[in-house]
Amino acid sequence: MAHHGWGGRPPASDAEARQRIVDATARCIDRHGVVKTTLSDVAHELGVTRQTVYRHFDRISDIVGEVAAQGAESFVDRLVDHLQGIGDPAGAVVEGMMFCLRTIPTEPRLSLLLQLRDSAAFGRGATAADAIAYGAQMLHRFPVDWASAGVGEDDLNGLAEIIMRLLTSLLEHPSEPPHDEAEIRALLNRWLAPALRRTGPRPERGCSSQLAPAGRWHGTTS
């Protein structure tokens, strides 16, 4: 690891160097935007050469992806905290999606996930196996007893994929004119929530689930 540059404070480890590169990239993105941020900008911000940055990251998109990932970790913690007290699966999923729709566009680091075409969380990468597995891990953290609700491990993967597909569509391709929050919540309650309101035990594979009444278009989760 080179000890030149770094503002006169060379990192003590590779891990520290990587984190300082990520932090510098975040500052560059704040100033220039993700599209105009280059690896040269990051190197200049740190006072190092491009080759020094290349020792830790192969591409600028890899660094930007790490900036987004770190923002996502904090976001998930806040999401789970927001859902505390909502033990109903349908209510938790709908409220969680509404939280995502409100928060992601206003968070610079989270918004990067929508701009990165090879992102593993949203965009074209939203249906990748690792992204779905990550989504299922997020659902595990919801204050919901999934097993008692008849939702198994395989179901959580499927639910995570549906949620990510819906979020991607709603965030990247809003309706014209745009739906307000109440309309989107009603849409989710009408068409998504009923799938999580089984009235009987979990059915065998190949059998239809029993669903609670869907309610009206403008119904609530209660």
From TrEMBL:
<keyword id="KW-0805">Transcription regulation</keyword>
<feature type="domain" description="HTH tetR-type">
    <location>
        <begin position="15"/>
        <end position="75"/>
    </location>
</feature>
<keyword id="KW-0804">Transcription</keyword>
<dbReference type="InterPro" id="IPR050109">
    <property type="entry name" value="HTH-type_TetR-like_transc_reg"/>
</dbReference>
<dbReference type="Pfam" id="PF00440">
    <property type="entry name" value="TetR_N"/>
</dbReference>
<protein>
    <submittedName>
        <fullName>TetR/AcrR family transcriptional regulator</fullName>
    </submittedName>
</protein>
<feature type="DNA-binding region" description="H-T-H motif">
    <location>
        <begin position="38"/>
        <end position="57"/>
    </location>
</feature>
<dbReference type="InterPro" id="IPR009057">
    <property type="entry name" value="Homeodomain-like_sf"/>
</dbReference>
<keyword id="KW-0238">DNA-binding</keyword>
<dbReference type="InterPro" id="IPR001647">
    <property type="entry name" value="HTH_TetR"/>
</dbReference>
<feature type="region of interest" description="Disordered">
    <location>
        <begin position="199"/>
        <end position="222"/>
    </location>
</feature>
